[in-house]
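task queued by scheduler; priority normal; single chain, no ligands, no partner chains; default sampling; output format set to structure tokens
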Amino acid sequence: MYQDKSQDRVGVLQMNSEIQHAYLELLSAHCAVHQLRLHYSTDDLARCGRNDVLRKSAEAANALQEFYSQIEQRMFTLAPAPEALPQPTPELIAQGIQWMCECLRQNQERYAANARPLTRREAESLAPYFSDPVLNCVRIAELHGERVPTPDFVEQVRSMGFDNLPDLPHMDSLTFIDVIVFNEELNVRALFHGLVHAVQIRLLGLARYAELWVRGFAKGRVHFTVPLEVHAFSLAARYAAPSHLPFSVENEVLRWTAERRY
């Protein structure tokens, strides 16, 4: 059992990093299953789907459900009685939108000076998914020896009872309008995720993107459940699948916008 000692803190950080990684993979799987639900009935899947794959999928899902249920039960016995979550006022929502717009603009300006364009190889590999205007305007910044700092307003928001805000210094990539910043080295899946956000901001506009993000967070209280983030994770997982057909991210964002899924 981990105790509050300095030698154990590294282990706790590693454990939570692995928990977060597992959650991202589960979220990608959830998005993939959601697409099945949208396109096929359970009767269609049971009648025409590959029985061996469906059976193995069900076994894996049941095992995961049992594992996380045990953790949840243990958390319930260890945790104090939960307090009622605060409901954000319209004024707080408006302030959150303003904070987010300022954060994106300020960090865009901060990192743009040392950011680079996509390499020819990167642009060519991403061309089937993104238009030339997107690929030509996006810039990449890889931080070495530093990380994106936590915005000043985060502590104020947390003091109001809103936890689970994104931990910017420990995220793989962050999109500041058209500048994608990597806290560590660039990886292709995180780049794709960041480009999806660049497309969302480009098509929705910064103010509307910030509004949808803040309202989504206020509703779900975890940034992974914000529809803008869910879509980015879903498309990145689709891109990373071993075999898939190319698709237009712009068209996908426009479709979700028209269907009011954000």
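post-processing summary
- The chain has a mean pLDDT of 85.
- The two ends are 41 Å apart (CA to CA).
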